[in-house]
Amino acid sequence: MTTFAPGTFKPSPGRGSLPRMLFVHARTEAMLTLRNGEQILLTVIIPLALLVALALMSVIPMPEPRVGSATARIFALAIISSAFTGQAIALGFDRRYGVLKRLSASALPRWLLVAGRVCGALVVVALQIAMLAVTALILGWRFPLSGLPWVVLLIVLGTLTFGALGVLLGGSLRADVVLALANIIWFVLLMVGGVALSVPVGFVHLLPSAALAQALETSVVHGTAPGVGPVAVLVAWGVVAGALATRTTKLT
């Protein structure tokens, strides 16, 4: 009979490493989003349909090259759909059904609960952008490769900013209120928030939606760095929303 020295199989209880927990949590959030039919409609079907419509139909005025301008704006819409609307609704219903409360009782720190959701949204956004980019190339988009680093940076910054706004909304109000408000805000930002339409109103450029669309258009169409103004607007909204979300987010 084989014998082992005392302590050979001594258990070592404790939580996993923070990077591992973040990876697992983000993967779970991304998979849950991709399995949700309503989320797919919001994050994939509608942006794809709008991209084709804006690129091929001249009803809505669009700067030339039309396909490039449409692509930049739909990139912004995709980020808003996943990072803000989708995250706010999911968080609201997770609180309603007690999911967030149960997760908070695990070894996951509260900040990691938020970071995991935002990272999961970033994965979904990356898949969205890939699909939209392929469609835009088929429609005739010619992407200047010099703008690639800036586009990647803006995608990350936009996801973080709108993710913080989504957590702020979804973590503080009732699920049914979040569902209504998130969809109303999505529609308003699309129509008069500087995404689908360039609204000549002074305060619109201070909205994160207009800032993201403008910055992406600079990089997607011209391949140059975005202006300091739009980036500063995105950072400001993200910092303020993140600070408020840490104070107002409720577990139930």
From TrEMBL:
The chain crosses the membrane at residues 40-60, 72-93, 114-141, 147-170, 177-207, 227-246. Its main location: membrane. One of its GO terms (cellular component) is membrane. It is a multi-pass membrane protein. It is found in: Membrane. InterPro entries: ABC2_TM (IPR013525), Nod_factor_ABC_transporter (IPR051784). Residues 27-199 form the ABC-2 type transporter transmembrane domain. GO terms for molecular function: ABC-type transporter activity. Pfam families: ABC2_membrane. Keywords: Membrane, Transmembrane, Transmembrane helix. This is ABC-2 type transport system permease protein. It comes from Lentzea flaviverrucosa.
